[in-house]
Specification:
Strand order of the largest sheet: 14-15-16-18-17-21-22-23-27
Largest sheet: 9 strands, mixed
Shape: globular
Strand content: 15-25%
Structural class: alpha/beta
Distance between the termini: 68 Å
Helix content: 25-40%
Number of helices: 19
Number of strands: 28
Radius of gyration: 29 Å
Length: 680
C-alpha cells in the first residue's frame, strides 16, 4: 500500500482509538466539537475525509498519450517505456505505441500514427537518449567525450543500466548545442555503441545541481513515482509498476530513489522486428530472381568515357528487378499484405552503370568487379564515372546503381516534402529498403545472365570478372555498406570510406543537414528546435532496417542464416564535417573490430592491433583539417568537403583499400602514423 494512504489510515485509526471521535467533550476549552487534532488545528470528521483524499492524491496534468513524468514535451524523456504496450505475440513482450497525437504537428499538416513505428517491438537500439530538467544542470562533474571511464564509477551522477544483466553502460553527457530562448534545453546521454537488441535499459540522473549550485527539483510527475505519492493521473499510475522494478534495479547498483533527479526505462526492439520486413523482401526477391537473375538491357555505351584514357568504356543499362513499393516515384508507400508484411507488386527496370578500366584492356586481363556505393543525394552512374581514374589505377571494373531514398532520383523533393508532412518520411524509409533489393537484383543478374555481355569484351576477352564481387562505399555508401554486405551473400568484403553508424547522431552534426534545415525550421514546418530534435530521433526507428548499426553486431557469425558474416575496412578522416568521427567510433565499437596501431587516433574502448590484419579493422587518417564543433551542431560550410573528400586521393589510403579488396589483408601503407597534408 502506498505510503500516503498508509499514513492517512493510521491517523484515522489512532483517533478512533483515542476517543477523539466520540460524543464526549474535550477537556481542552479551546477546542469544541473536536474530531481530530492534526498539528495545531482542529478539524471535523468531514474535513478528515477530504484531507485524506487530498493528501494522498496529487494532481498532475497531462495527456494520456504522453509521458507525464516530464511536462516539457509529450515525448520526453526519450525513449520511454510509456510508449510500449504489452504484447504477447512479440519477442520482447512489447509493441511500440506512439500515437500521432504525441508526435508534434508541422505547420503544414497534422501528424498521424506511423505504421513503421507501431510495427516494432521496442525502441531503436541506435536511439538518441535525452531529457530536460526544471533548470539547466551543471554537467561539469559528469562524463564527457574526454572522460568516458568516469561514467562507470560508483560516485558518478548519471547512469545507464542494462536491467537484464545489471551491467553499467559507459556513456557521456552533453548539453544540446541546439536550443532557443523560449524552450528548455535537451540534455543528451550518449552511448558509445549501439545498444543490445531486445534488452531493457534504465537511465538515471541523481543529485543534480544547476550552475548556481542549487539542487534541481524533479518534475512533479516523476517525483510522485519516486516518492510513492498517489496522483490523479492515470498514465502515471499505470506506469508505477514498471517504475518500481526500475527503482529496485537502480538501488542494486547504489542509485537510491530518494537521490534521483530523473530516471526512466525503455526496451529495445528485437533484431527480428527490425529486419523482418527486409529479410522477407530479400527472400522473396531471391526466389523471383533465381540463381542468375531475370535479365538486363544495355541502353548506351561510351568509349573512352571522359576522354582521359582511364576508361575503356562506360556501359549503362537497366536490370529487371522485383518491386515492392506502390510506385517507382517518391514519395510512395510499401505494398503490404493483410498481415503488414511487404508484398511483391511488379517487376521494374532499375538503372545500372559499368566502367571497364583501360588498364584491364592494356593487360588483356579481366578486372575484378567492384560495387560502388555513392554519397548523399548522389547516384550510381555519377559514382562509377567519378572514380574511373582511381579504379583504373587499382585495376577494378566497377558497377553501381542508386541508393533510392537518398539519391538524386527524386528523393530531394520527397524529403523536403516530408519535412513539412512527416507522415511521408516513413515512405522514404521504405524506399531505402527497396534499394537493397535493387542492389540484390543488380549483383545477381550481373553474376548470372548478364555476366557475358558483348559490351564486356575486347579482342575476344571478357574484361569484367564477376566471379568474386566486393563492395566499396563512400560517405552514405559507407553508411549503407553493412546492410548490403549482411543481406546479400554474393558480396562479403567491403571498404567503407568516411562512413559511420547511427544516422540520427550524424544528422545534427553534418554540414549535409544545412541544405534541409532552413526548410525544416521554417514557418511551414517546425519552428521549434525541440520538436525537430525529437522528430529526427523518432526517425531512427524507421531508418533502422538499413542502418549500419543494426547489422554490425553480426559481422562475424551472421544470424540464423538470414544475416551473413562479412569483413570491412573503415577508412576515416579526422575532423570530417559531413560524417562525424563520433559515428565512426560508434560503428567500430558496435562491430567490435580493432583500430590499427598506426592510426592517428585510437578511440576509447577499441582494441589496438598491429598490421597486417586478416579480417576487419578501422584506420583513422589525419590531414590537419580545422576542428569541427564538438557538440550536436554542424560546422561552417567551408569545411564541408575538406576532410571528407581529400582522404580519397591520398595514396596510402587508396593502397590500403586496394590491398584489402584484392587480398583481404589490412597492411601498413602509411610507414608510420597515417598523417597527410590536407589543403584548406
Amino acid at each position: 500500500m502506498p505510503r500516503q494512504r498508509t499514513i492517512a489510515t493510521l491517523l484515522v485509526s489512532l483517533l478512533l482509538l483515542s476517543g477523539c471521535l466520540s460524543d464526549e467533550t474535550s477537556e481542552n476549552p479551546e477546542i469544541e466539537d473536536c474530531s481530530t487534532i492534526i498539528g495545531d488545528s482542529c478539524e471535523s470528521e468531514d474535513t478528515i475525509a477530504d484531507e485524506g483524499i487530498s493528501e494522498r492524491e496529487i494532481s498532475i496534468s497531462g495527456e494520456g498519450y504522453c509521458d507525464n513524468t516530464n511536462p516539457d514535451h509529450c515525448l520526453l524523456p526519450f525513449p520511454s517505456s510509456v510508449f510500449l504496450e504489452p504484447a504477447s505475440d512479440t519477442r520482447t513482450g512489447f509493441r511500440l505505441d506512439i500515437s500521432g497525437e504525441a508526435v508534434p504537428d508541422s505547420a503544414s499538416a497534422p501528424t498521424e500514427d506511423f505504421h513503421m513505428l507501431d510495427s516494432k517491438d521496442g525502441h531503436s537500439p541506435s536511439t538518441q537518449i535525452f531529457t530536460t530538467f526544471s533548470t539547466l544542470p551543471d554537467i561539469s562533474g559528469l562524463a564527457s567525450q574526454d572522460s568516458i571511464p568516469s561514467s562507470s564509477l560508483p560516485e558518478h551522477n548519471s547512469l545507464m543500466l542494462n536491467m537484464d544483466t545489471g551491467q553499467i553502460v559507459e556513456h557521456w553527457v552533453e548539453i544540446s548545442a541546439r536550443t532557443q530562448e523560449d524552450e528548455p534545453t535537451l540534455v543528451h546521454l550518449r552511448t558509445l555503441r549501439g545498444l543490445d537488441h531486445n534488452t531493457q535499459y534504465a537511465v538515471a540522473f541523481r543529485n543534480l545541481t544547476d550552475w548556481s549550485g542549487d539542487p534541481i527539483e524533479p518534475f512533479p510527475g516523476f517525483k510522485a513515482l519516486r516518492d510513492e505519492s498517489i496522483t490523479d493521473n492515470q498514465q502515471l499510475e499505470s506506469a508505477r509498476t514498471g517504475y518500481e522494478v526500475m527503482f529496485s534495479s537502480l538501488s542494486e547498483v547504489g542509485y537510491e530513489r530518494k537521490d534521483l533527479t530523473s530516471a526512466w526505462w525503455f526496451h529495445t526492439a528485437s533484431t527480428q522486428s527490425i529486419v523482418g520486413d527486409i529479410i522477407s523482401m530479400r527472400n522473396n526477391a531471391t526466389q523471383l530472381l533465381g540463381d542468375n537473375g531475370i535479365g538486363c538491357n544495355v541502353t548506351s555505351v561510351t568509349e573512352n568515357y571522359g576522354g582521359d584514357n582511364t576508361t575503356l568504356r562506360r556501359i549503362s543499362g537497366t536490370i529487371t528487378t522485383p518491386h515492392y513499393l506502390q510506385s517507382n516515384y517518391p514519395p510512395t508507400a510499401m505494398t503490404r499484405s493483410e498481415d503488414g508484411t511487404p508484398r511483391f507488386n511488379f517487376m521494374t527496370e532499375v538503372v545500372f552503370t559499368v566502367t571497364i578500366p583501360k588498364s584491364a584492356a592494356d593487360a588483356s586481363q579481366p578486372a575484378p568487379l567492384l560495387v560502388l556505393g555513392h554519397g548523399f543525394m548522389g547516384d550510381g552512374q555519377g559514382m562509377v564515372s567519378a572514380l574511373r581514374g582511381p579504379t583504373n589505377d587499382s585495376g577494378f571494373a566497377t558497377i553501381g546503381t542508386d541508393f533510392k531514398g537518398w539519391s538524386s532520383d527524386g528523393d530531394f523533393g520527397a524529403i523536403t516534402f516530408g519535412l513539412m508532412n512527416p507522415n511521408y518520411l516513413q515512405h522514404q524509409s521504405e524506399r531505402l529498403q527497396q534499394s537493397i533489393i535493387n542492389h540484390l537484383a543488380m549483383i545477381t543478374t550481373i553474376k548470372g545472365v548478364c555476366s557475358d555481355l558483348p559490351e564486356f569484351y575486347q579482342n575476344g576477352i571478357n574484361l569484367v570478372d564477376t566471379t568474386d564481387i566486393n563492395y566499396m562505399g563512400v560517405s552514405l555508401g559507407g553508411n549503407r555498406g553493412p546492410s548490403l554486405l549482411s543481406l546479400i551473400p554474393a558480396i562479403d568484403r567491403g571498404v567503407l570510406w568516411v562512413g559511420g553508424s547511427s544516422f540520427s547522431l550524424q544528422v545534427e552534426r553534418s554540414t549535409q543537414y544545412t541544405q534541409f534545415e532552413e526548410l525544416f525550421a521554417s514557418p511551414l514546418a517546425y519552428e521549434s528546435t525541440l520538436d525537430r530534435s525529437i522528430l529526427i530521433s523518432l526517425m531512427q526507428s524507421m531508418w533502422d532496417t538499413t542502418e549500419a548499426e543494426t547489422y554490425l553486431p553480426f559481422i562475424d557469425g551472421g544470424m540464423d542464416g538470414e544475416l551473413h558474416p562479412y569483413e570491412i575496412l573503415y577508412i576515416i578522416s579526422m575532423n570530417d564535417a559531413q560524417v562525424t568521427t563520433l559515428s565512426a567510433d560508434r560503428a567500430s565499437r558496435t562491430s567490435g573490430i580493432p583500430v590499427l596501431s598506426n592510426s592517428t587516433y585510437h578511440p576509447y574502448g577499441l582494441d589496438v592491433t598491429e598490421a597486417p590484419v586478416s579480417g576487419s579493422a578501422i584506420v583513422y587518417f589525419d590531414g590537419g583539417f580545422p576542428a569541427v564543433p564538438s557538440g550536436n551542431i554542424q560546422g561552417p560550410m567551408e569545411y564541408h568537403s575538406l576532410a571528407h573528400n581529400q582522404v580519397l586521393g591520398y595514396d596510402p589510403a587508396v593502397d590500403l583499400a586496394t590491398e584489402f579488396l584484392l587480398s583481404g589483408q589490412i597492411t601498413d601503407t602509411c610507414s608510420g602514423e597515417c598523417y597527410f597534408e590536407g589543403t584548406w
